[in-house]
Amino acid sequence: MENINLIDTFSEFKELKNIDRATMVRVLEDSFRSVLVKIFGSDKNFDVIVNVDKGDFEIWRNREVVPDGEVKDPNTQIALSEARKFDPDYEVGEEVVDEVDFHKFGRRAILSLRQNLAGQILELEKDQLYQKYSERIGQIVTGEVYQIWKREMLILDDEGNELILPRSEQIPGDFFHKGETVRAVVIKVEMRNNNPLIILSRTSPVFLERLFEFEVPEIYDGLITIKKIVRAPGERAKVAVESYDDRIDPVGACVGMKGSRIHGIVRELHNENIDVINYTTNTQLFIQRALNPAKVSSIKIFEDEKRADVYLKPEEVSLAIGKGGLNIRLASQLTGYEIDVYRETDDEDEEDVSLEEFSDEIEGWIIDELKAIGCDTAKSVLDLTVEDLTKRTDLEEETIRDVINILKAEFE
Q1: Which end of the chain is least crowded, N or C, by CB within 10 Å?
Q2: pLDDT (0 to 100) of residue 316
Q3: Computed over its alpha carbons, how large is the radius of gyration of the chain?
Q4: How far apart are the C-alpha atoms of 32 and 100, rounded to whole Å?
């Protein structure tokens, strides 16, 4: 029977997609009614009964009994003689209810029903997928790599839904093969060409926050709060944490015994260095902690400009700035202050000369490269070897030697 096949088809879909009973009945009724409208022009005088448990359906039509020869609309009216074929007791003005045999409408009607049902199921599936993942924005999902392209990767979740992990949202060290399991956070869900598009990310600070929640029970339970996270994915991250319980050390709890808790997170992020910092409302102390591992000598805060001048011993400057200026950049993002680093000058350094004084002999972009690694004076450059300067800047060795000769000439 065609009707049973239709119900079976829908039941299989329900089992796979977890569609609730009420929704399933509504979709079936809507599909039948759309076909009835096409055949009769209206479905208002029809009752559609779907029995999901038995896997069948019934369609009943209600028509008013009118005198013979006065039938104007065969769909809503029935002649008295025809009505009495159902029951000889019918009288004019009464209502006849008779079952409609859907199969008598032919294969075209059945095909139309199938197409309508399939269309509604597809739209329902899209809506449910969009709704499901809209509610999961900010949550981690696990899926299997199904296809890898140049700009993005297709992930399938445990229900076979398609998720997209763009290359821009992958950690630089990420390298996956088809069939591998991937964890990422849902960052965006949108409709594109009437299809739900679910975008994942492994570079978002939210992904790191969720990983901490998984690894640190105190965060999951709300005993420790993550105040802010800043990241350079795959390289370094800074996490400010705070505990509302004086008995709990937030940094120690996040790191774990011998780093047991944070090691799992670091492995997931391909050895991304993670600095866990104790949050404080004391701006000077917070900036000092944010510049870890450098040891700060003193700090001057300019609240109006949201700027801080930080003074360190010469050997600490490079640690504060970090490779390519990464450490100081993340510290600025974490604290919300623009941080300028200065070398603490001793008496013997009073004769030191700012690199800006050599702008006539050294090109500006070269001076900027040197300042980016914390070398803002002549002696701060001369304190480093040619090898160190070559490794820490993008300058050629020949250029560095020329700079050193110019600076040495100043003190000879």
Answers
A1: C
A2: 86
A3: 36
A4: 12
Domain boundaries, the chain: 2-126, 136-201, 347-411
Query: 182 — alpha (psi -120 to 50), left (phi > 0) or beta?
Result: beta
136-201: CATH superfamily: Nucleic acid-binding proteins (2.40.50.140)
Architecture of domain 2-126: 2-Layer Sandwich (3.30)
Q: Is the pLDDT of residue 340 over 70?
A: yes
Tokens of 170: 């992958």
Mean model confidence pLDDT for the chain: 86
User: Residue 385: pLDDT band by 50, 70, 90 thresholds?
Assistant: confident
Highest mean pLDDT among 2-16, 94-108, 115-129, 160-174: 160-174
Determine the Cα–Cα distance for residues 90 and 100; give it in Å rounded to an integer. 19
